[in-house]
């Protein structure tokens, strides 16, 4: 398989050519906290707004919290970039439930998320090599 | 829906007017639902302080999210720049026309 070397902020990592990220999405790396956590939450499966909020709080060990304003402006941006997509609402019991939309990650969203995770992994590896942080086994 | 929930919902819908119209039409209803769920969860967990925390977050987002969104709209940006330019011009003229004894 052909691999491309992606050089990003002194970090070099290999990506399969099938998962290349378009140039307009490259500029999103490194992902902002809100974008990263929302993509991460949706990597677990499709969710509606409040479920995303809860998942973000859990994933970040309650270190990162966001209100509806931050959540939905980020969702709008991710929808426009086709990193996530809307899905049909599962629950239509009450009036307000029928207006609820769920979101799921697109293939490009998954690719971008894994690129950022790879980038972080490379940084941690580099830091360990330079003995800036202890190794996991230490 | 209890009275408190109705009040929270009504007040939050008023806050939503700070967001650009297009954004509000697309996500306003969902934002209100999410906000109410946040309020319910915090009230069950922490009571009144929890509800206040959610409200503080919502008000903070007016400045950190809604205002920058509004400013991104070209019309609002043009109006803001025009206002600032007029204000600067007014202050300059005022300074120039004020007699030295009044300075």
What structural category arises from helix and sheet content of chain A?
alpha+beta
Q: How many helices of chain B does DSSP assign?
A: 4
Strand content of chain A: 15-25%
Q: Estimate the helix proportion of chain B, in percent.
A: over 70%
* CATH homology superfamily name of the domain at 22-112 in chain A: Winged helix-like DNA-binding domain superfamily/Winged helix DNA-binding domain
The helix/strand order of chain B is HHHH
CATH class of the domain at 22-112 in chain A: Mainly Alpha
Kindly report how far apart the N and C termini of chain B lie.
61 Å
Helix content of chain A: 40-55%
How far apart are the first and last residues' alpha carbons of chain A, in Å? Answer: 35 Å
Oligomer: heterodimer
Morphology of chain B: elongated
Stretches of chain A where pLDDT falls below 50 for ≥5 residues? 1-12
Task: Fill in the keyword field for this structure.
heterodimer, A: 138 residues, alpha+beta, Arc Repressor Mutant, subunit A, two-stranded antiparallel sheet, 5 helices, globular, disordered N terminus, B: 103 residues, mainly alpha, 4 helices
Outline the fold blueprint.
The complex is a heterodimer of chains A (138) and B (103).
Chain A: E1 3-8, E2 11-16, H1 23-26, H2 33-43, E3 47-48, H3 49-59, H4 68-80, E4 84-87, E5 102-105, H5 107-129
Antiparallel strand pairs in A: 1-2, 3-5, 4-5
Chain B: H1 3-15, H2 21-46, H3 48-72, H4 74-97
Describe the protein in words.
The complex is a heterodimer of chains A (138) and B (103). Chain A is of the alpha+beta class. In chain A, a hairpin with a 2-residue loop joins strand 1 and strand 2 (11-16). Chain A starts with a strand and ends in a 9-residue tail after the last helix. Chain A contains 5 helices and 5 strands; from the N terminus they run ββααβααββα. Chain A has a 3-stranded antiparallel β-sheet. A two-stranded antiparallel ribbon of chain A has the order 1-2. Chain A has a domain at 22-112: Winged helix-like DNA-binding domain superfamily/Winged helix DNA-binding domain (Arc Repressor Mutant, subunit A), CATH 1.10.10. Chain A is globular, with a radius of gyration of 17 Å. In chain A, helix 2 (33-43) crosses helix 3 and helix 2 crosses helix 5 (107-129). With 103 residues, chain B is mainly alpha-helical. Chain B folds into 2 domains: 1-72, no CATH class; 74-103. Helix content of chain B is 85%, strand content 0%. In chain B, helix 1 packs antiparallel against helix 2. The longest helix of chain B is centred in the first third of the chain and has 26 residues, at 21-46. Chain B is elongated, with a radius of gyration of 21 Å. At the A-B interface, helix 3 and helix 4 of A face helix 2 and helix 3 of B.
């Amino acid at each position: 398989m052909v691999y491309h070397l992606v050089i990003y902020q002194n970090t070099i990592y290999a990506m399969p050519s099938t998962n290349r990220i378009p140039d307009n999405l490259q500029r999103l790396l490194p992902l902002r906290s809100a974008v990263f956590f929302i993509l991460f939450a949706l990597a677990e499966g499709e969710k509606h707004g409040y479920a995303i909020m809860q998942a973000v709080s859990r994933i970040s060990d309650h270190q990162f919290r966001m209100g509806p304003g931050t959540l939905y402006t980020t969702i709008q941006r991710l929808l426009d970039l086709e990193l996530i997509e809307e899905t049909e609402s599962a629950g239509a019991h009450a009036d307000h439930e029928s207006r609820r939309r769920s979101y799921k990650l697109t293939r490009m969203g998954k690719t971008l998320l894994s690129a950022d995770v790879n980038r972080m992994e490379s940084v941690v590896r580099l830091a360990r090599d330079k003995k800036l942080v202890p190794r996991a086994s230490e | 829906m209890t009275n408190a929930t109705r009040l929270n919902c009504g007040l939050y819908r008023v806050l939503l007017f700070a967001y650009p119209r297009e954004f509000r039409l697309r996500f306003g209803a969902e934002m209100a639902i999410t906000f109410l769920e946040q309020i319910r969860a915090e009230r069950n967990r922490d009571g009144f302080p929890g509800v206040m925390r959610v409200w503080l977050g919502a008000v903070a987002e007016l400045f950190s999210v809604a205002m920058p969104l509004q400013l991104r709209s070209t019309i609002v940006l043009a109006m803001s720049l025009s206002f600032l330019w007029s204000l600067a011009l007014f202050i300059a003229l005022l300074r120039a026309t004020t007699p030295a004894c009044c300075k």
